[in-house]
Specification:
The protein is mostly helical. It is 25% helix and 0% strand. It has 2 helices and no strands. It is elongated and about 85 Å long.
């Protein structure tokens, strides 16, 4: 039985019986693998002005009122 504060094994052989040399070659190959590059931060440029705002193309919501259907055909 292992001690309660022992760390779990890093590698586990699921099938087969590798030799000590094969396990050492695998550990060396994994240790030589380069670390992933950190993600580059997104550049923060100036915010687009009102002319290029996509919300500018949306119209105001229609109001439910008598004759409201007439106003739906009129440009805002």
């Amino acid at each position: 039985m292992t001690a309660p504060d022992a760390a779990p094994p890093v590698l586990t052989v699921v099938r087969g019986a590798p030799s000590d040399d094969e396990v050492a070659a695998l550990v060396a190959a994994l240790a030589a693998r380069p670390a992933p590059a950190p993600a580059a931060p997104r550049p923060r440029g100036p915010r687009p002005g009102g002319w290029s705002d996509p919300a500018r193309a949306l119209r105001a919501p229609l109001r439910a009122a008598p004759g409201g259907w007439v106003g739906s055909a009129r440009p805002s």
